[in-house]
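hi!! sorry for the late reply, been swamped w classes. u asked for the two structures so here they r. pasted raw, havent cleaned anything up. first the sequence of the first protein and right below it the tokens
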Amino acid sequence: MPRATALDTTALQNALTELPGWSVAGDKLHKEFTFKNFAAAFGFMASVAIEANRMDHHPEWSNVWNRVVIDLVTHGAGNRISALDVELAKKIDALAQQVTR
């Protein structure tokens, strides 16, 4: 399946079983992260930015102090969730594990 093809309901549900803490909100993959402080949250965002840029797939996100909210959607898949979003979510989770929380 091409990475920019929207996942069907079954594929999306299967993917969510491999993405602890992620949910679907407004047709996007969604997760909130809480860190020790602003510096940790910002460092996490910088790490995600580097990986997202490598993948040429960029999150919609916001940051308030120690909290980072991330939404993932693939515009090339009709603004729906694709395998590319799942791949980035897994990388984001791995990066979050490296940050002192």
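now the second protein. again sequence first, tokens right under
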Amino acid sequence: MLTEFTTAAAIENLVNATLGADASARHEYLLRQSLHNLVRLAKAEYKVEVQHSVGKVVQVLPTDATLVL
């Protein structure tokens, strides 16, 4: 959960730095949600990349090998 807090804080800092104090609530909301969606997309892409890498490793393991995590 600490990662989410750090991400949320970073997003708030970006929103404040980008839009400044005079921004409307609508503009803040739109930028904040866009950044949250970008983080979600990056997490999904990372998950797919890790799954692909694990798939490559599993393919080259001997059939009688034991994978220990």
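hope this helps!! also noticed smth abt the second:
The first helix runs from residue 2 to 19.
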